[in-house]
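Q: Please design a sequence for this.
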C-alpha cells in the first residue's frame, strides 16, 4: 500500500508541476531539482544510515515507495513551491507557501511512518518540518543565484 500511495502522490505532483504555466526556465528548474535532490539524499543518508535516527523498511516494495518519496516526491514538491513563489514573490505569500509545503511534506513523512515505510527512532515530525524549511530556503537561495538561460534546446550555438 505504501508504494501505491507514494507513486500516486508523485505522479500527481509531477503532473501539476508540468501543467502549470512556466515562470522559470526548464534549465533552471532542472538545476534546482538536482540541487534539492543532492541535498535531500545526503541528509537522508546521514540521518538514516549514519546516525540511525530513522529506520527504513527492508520490504522491497515499501523500500521502493521510500525511494520514490525521497527522490521524486520531495524534490518535485519543493520545485512546485519555488514555482508558486516565483509567480507571486511577495513576502507574505512566500511565508504562507513555505509553511504550507513544509506541512504537506511533514504529513507525507508521517504517512510514510504510518504505512510502515519508515520508523522514527530519534527523529520526529518537528525535526522533519525544520529540515524541509531549510531545504526550501536552500532552493530559494539557489533560485536567486542561478544564472538565467534562454532555453534554446536543440539549437546550434
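A: Design:
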Amino acid at each position: 500500500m505504501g508504494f501505491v500511495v507514494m507513486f500516486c502522490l508523485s505522479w500527481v505532483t509531477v503532473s501539476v508541476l508540468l501543467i502549470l504555466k512556466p515562470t522559470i526556465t526548464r534549465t533552471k528548474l532542472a538545476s534546482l531539482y538536482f540541487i534539492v535532490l543532492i541535498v535531500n539524499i545526503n541528509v537522508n543518508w546521514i540521518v538514516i544510515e549514519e546516525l540511525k535516527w530513522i529506520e527504513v523498511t527492508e520490504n522491497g516494495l515499501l523500500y521502493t515507495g521510500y525511494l520514490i518519496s525521497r527522490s521524486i516526491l520531495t524534490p518535485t514538491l519543493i520545485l512546485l513551491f519555488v514555482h508558486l513563489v516565483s509567480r507571486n514573490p511577495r513576502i507574505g505569500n512566500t511565508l504562507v507557501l513555505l509553511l504550507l509545503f513544509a506541512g504537506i511534506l511533514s504529513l507525507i513523512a508521517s504517512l510514510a511512518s504510518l504505512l510502515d515505510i519508515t520508523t522514527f527512532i530519534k527523529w520526529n515530525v518537528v525535526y522533519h518540518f525544520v529540515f524541509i524549511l531549510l531545504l526550501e530556503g536552500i532552493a530559494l537561495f539557489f533560485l536567486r543565484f542561478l544564472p538565467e538561460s534562454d532555453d534554446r534546446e536543440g539549437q546550434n550555438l
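Q: Thanks. Anything notable?
A: Residues 2-8+26-145 form one domain. Strands lie at 54-56, 118-120.
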